[in-house]
Records
---
Amino acid sequence: MANYWLVKQEPNDYNYDNLSKEGKTMWDGVHNNFALKNISKMKSGDLAFFYHSGKEKQIVGVIEIISNPYSNPNENNDRFLVVDVKPNFKLDNPVTLSKIKSMDVFKEWHLVKISRLSVMSVSKNIWDKIIELSKLTSS
């Protein structure tokens, strides 16, 4: 059974369209211990929301984890893990952080409670709700 995740990236540095053009990439640059612990639990076949941080603050797409975690070849410390990812699909409508914060169903989610965490787990219930919201037109 696949697990669900959310990964954040500043869209001026790297965004969903960049990933779509490249076809796949190594998800790197994570140094926070809690985020690294989450990466260590990822496995090939898992899905993740691609969240644009910074000024956008919105979930824009779904990506697939296509490798198990491995040590970042560009770091001199084996604890810095990475995974390879590929685009899956762009959401019909981005789901904004303000929309998420306005709904009680999300109040305990790390995206709301630990806003700076760059890699986090997503429950099936939250995953399904985000997908549902992405199919609605923005209000």
---
Amino acid sequence: MIDNVIDGVIADLQRRSANSRYAEDPVAWARDVLGKHMWSKQAEIAMSVVDNTHTAVVSCNGAGKSAVAGILGAWWVATRDVYD
């Protein structure tokens, strides 16, 4: 049952993420699909994930690293065919 729910959520995110520009622009995806604003450092992290195979972030506690990681995980699943 939980698998059906997860599959439904993924399908909905993929449907809402059909715009091809979202595959290379997680900042726009977060804004348009999730309604989330990324502040400048979060946007820099997000674009680093697009442009690089590895991204490391050093910062203080409470800067939003976990939030951007969660958004990027959802973006990745929503903009790619995870079943290939």
